[in-house]
Amino acid sequence: MQKYFGDQGGYPYWHSEQHPTPGPGEGMHRALLLTIYLNEGFEAGETEFLYQQRKIAPRTGSLLIAPGGFTHTHRGNRPLGGHKYIATSWVLYQRAEQLYGSAR
């Protein structure tokens, strides 16, 4: 669950779910992004996709599904005139170490 404060919140930085990475050699293992918009009633606050040149306006109860890779680089635009609430989850890749064990 996330709350973005009106007129100041949001995540206005371009990113994908796999980049930036949390540390050297550590890719984020997010294959698919799932976001449920929990409210509306504010201006702006869209999820904007860079390469698709598309803005998805929040509508209460709607579900956004997008690939986690760089092809769907996106940002959360700042909500104006009210707070924005979302529930976010991901479908994850399993790490190779979990599938095959660690190299010796």
TrEMBL record:
Keywords: Oxidoreductase. This is 2OG-Fe(II) oxygenase. Residues 3-91 form the Prolyl 4-hydroxylase alpha subunit Fe(2+) 2OG dioxygenase domain. One of its GO terms (molecular function) is oxidoreductase activity. Its EC number is 1.14.11.-. It comes from Roseateles violae. The keyword Oxidoreductase applies. Gene3D superfamilies: q2cbj1_9rhob like domain. InterPro entries: Pro_4_hyd_alph_FE2OG_OXY (IPR044862). Pfam families: 2OG-FeII_Oxy_3 (PF13640). Residues 1-26 are annotated as: Disordered.
